[in-house]
């Protein structure tokens, strides 16, 4: 596993946006699948020791993913992700909001814009996360979003190393 991969996390309060850029030592197709297929997402999309549990996912424009991050004690923190745009293997956009177990969103949420590119066998994922309010952005950061994102991306790094060997 390569250890010198890019990880950049920028908070721009003037635009109420967090920008995460991460490089992975895997080809674009595999990284795209990791972000867009339920069976792979549930293996990495939560900071340890939490796990991800998808109730359903329909990856298409207008479709959505309803999932929970589950603590070791069994506490569930649900979210709804609605896909608003998909350009295969280059970009997808979604709105994201925390929700209760009955899918009632806690608004406002945030708008996520994922961009994928590959160079020399490494795939870069750039994610722009726009929040409707500065208060929500600041709350997200205070809750440990940067640290949780770094841990989650490390999960993906490890999973991609395993999946790459299986190809």
Automatic annotation (TrEMBL):
Gene3D superfamilies: 3.30.530.20. Residues 26-160 form the Activator of Hsp90 ATPase homologue 1/2-like C-terminal domain. InterPro entries: ASHA1/2-like_C, START-like_dom_sf. Belongs to the AHA1 family. This is ATPase. The lineage of its organism: Bacteria, Pseudomonadati, Bacteroidota, Cytophagia, Cytophagales.
